[in-house]
Amino acid sequence: MELTVWTYEGPPHVGAMRIATGMNGVHYVLHAPQGDTYADLLFTMIERRDHRPPVTYTTFQARDLGSDTAELFKTAAREAVERFQPQTLLVGASCTAELIQDDPGGLAKALNLDIPVVPLELPSYQKKENWGAAETLYQITRRLVSQDTKRRAGDPPSCNILGPTALGFRHRDDVEEISSLLAMMGIRVNVTAPMGASPDDITRIPEASFNVVLYPEIAQTTAKWLERQFQQPFTTTIPIGVGGTKDFIQEVASLAGVDAMRALDAANARLPWYSRSIDSTYLTGKRVFIFGDGTHAIAAARVAKEELGFEVVGLGSYSRERARYVREVAQGLGLEALITDDYLEVERAIKDLQPEMVLGTQMERHIAKRLGIGCAVISAPVHVQDYPARYSPQMGFEGANVIFDTWVHPLMMGLEEHLLTMFREDHEFHDRAGASHLTSEETQTSPNETQPPISISAIAWADEAERELKKIPFFVRGKARRNTESFARDRGCAVITVETLYEAKAHFGR
To answer: pTM for the whole thing?
Structure first.
């Protein structure tokens, strides 16, 4: 493990909490020291839930290590069952408690509880949050599903929606959007899990004709097991963007044996028309850098390239479980995928590539803000502002509308900044005011201060040239910088002055 200020994923027991918190009738007893209860804040403050996660902590202290911490766990488990009366109990250890090797699963079994107990062995020092969520859903399903449960012959087509969890990026709205698409096709949703499911619902999963996997990071392990055990096929297309949604409808129609035309004809996506309109032509060819979890990063690359006409100059993910798929997509774009969980490495890549927009997580939003680049959030980890009260899915045709608005608005604001420079003599729009929509201590500069150049090139920029460069809209500023540095390098200039900047502009404007 290494210390870091930011992290893309928490430890695996946080993933288990996401499953437990999304379900009904489930309680999680976590063997953890005092201080490891911080995860509550993720749900109550960031997701703005109106109740605490269904988690009981043993909260042992340093002085307890010399006594019987195993007895503390058994007492906590027994009291949790008596107080909350769950239908199923999850038991496990946090990363710190894992070191004392008390075996929560064995201890819970010794209690002879009259409800199912699911022991979770989540190696905190080898795996992370999404893996922990996937393993938890898999273990719950294996423990609760009966091999005797089968689909009744003659039943109309039905499916399970697998993958949505608590603390998921727009999961609640995605489920609603996809459920409406399935209903339009005459397909009944048998169970949605883990979000909103009870242990009794889990036992009914084999009754469905097939499974819809919305988030492979969470549900693919379970879906593969269900396919082996119950011959339930599962979807592999992610319905993000207009093209992805249409392909998803076709795949679902094939699995269910129904007609896809009704759902396809009812498409209400405005993205295709907007992206072809004259107002959007200036967006064509904009350089974008994409980083997030595997599912959303891959989908974003397709939407950016095929539906908005952007140029994808960088693609990466922090998800090592989905790294192979990200690499395949990156290779198809002529890129080398960036697979890392080090945000500083991601920041260096953004500086080197100098994109005109970043599509990423809340970490990339902070990075882009410091660099004066437009950014849209496409993936967890996210902050409270990415859990809107309004309906705001990422999937389906309405999700495509949301994506268009979210991605294009930063570039539109860049165009607005360009128009504002026409009035830069006005007292509100002086040259040192910075971008109005990025106003902060990081982006504002005083007359005697300049921000460091984005480029890592050895060529230096004079202060007045740097100030002049900032008058150029951010969405073309990177290109102007690259062209000027190339011009200066070819002519052996060590320092770029205002004169060099305008000479380069004249040269490339021919």
So the answer is: 0.80
